[in-house]
Amino acid sequence: MLPLIGLFLPLLLVFIPLSFLTLFVESRSGLLLTAETKRTLFGSDRKRRKHSSGKGGSSVGKTALLLIAHPDDECMFFAPTVIELVKSGADVEVLCLSQGNADGLGDVRPTELVKSCKALGILDSSKVSCLDHAELQDDPNAWWKASVIADVLSAHIGDRAIEAIITFDQYGISGHANHRALFDGLRYFQSLPMVPGRAFVANNEDANQPYSSAGRQSRRLSSRGAPVCYALKSISILRKYSGVLDLPYTVLNFLVRKHILPHRRLRASSSRTTLRASTVDAIKEKAAKAGLRTRKPKTSRGPSAPTEAVFVGGPLQAIQGCNAMTCHKSQLVWFRYLYLLFSRYMVINELVEI
Fold first, then answer.
1. What is the CATH T-level fold of the domain 33-241+320-353, as seen in this structure?
2. What residues does each domain of the chain span?
3. What is the pLDDT of residues 144-195, one digit of tens each?
């Protein structure tokens, strides 16, 4: 008994201060954001939306779409992000591209997904979609086609005012082929031509022609333009299973990238040539005549911070994420419990703009 106490006492001495650090960060709103990311996910008046999105009131926050490959991805990897967005008044929708039928459990897993999303705070089941697409079946060895993912995503979004899409990065956190394919599919979706008042056009169709009503559905470009896309950052396996112990490194790394590195980059690139205002205006004028939208060009007026976010869940949020995972009863094998105990993704999420 004494040897066990001697083994776990140092861990407790480290874990308890880090837990207080987590509580402090969570009390400071539970996240670290750059200015651009804050406007994208929460808008300019976050406090007003937070108070107006309580029980009985309608949310006026941003609308974010979580794009996942299988039921249980939402709680195993994205729980801190979903919980914080919901708490802050944002509307969160979930699009799962497969029913997770690799083990023949496709009949029960969509129901588990809806229950899990409710545990995370997405109470409206109509905001949770789980597809059964012939070309998007759960298979760790199958690489889903990017064009198919983009087509399905366009059809799902339709006329919805989706302002942010969140998914896996190119490494897929766990390396699962379906996770990694989502990143490629979202990049393909971003490359589709955009025409105001008309749809995203796929398969090299003429962007000047209205989208055929007999063809696939697709999203019309809203007045706010295309959604901003974010990817959940993959990390080394050592950090992945370090849980809350990874928090100090994550916070310090973020602050260094936000406040120190941009100034160094600015000094190093002080002689960089930038577009003249007349050139930018000319580009905008040509795009307007062609009926296309342009993105705001980047300028060198000041140091540019990374467009990313770090979501940190406190102990209560970690428990909420674990409760969501328990809704996936078909997936609760012994190593899942170890994942819940040690995975850093149950308490920390880093999102980077694609």
1. Rossmann fold (3.40.50)
2. 33-241+320-353
3. 999 999 999 999 998 788 889 999 999 999 999 999 999 999 999 998 876 5
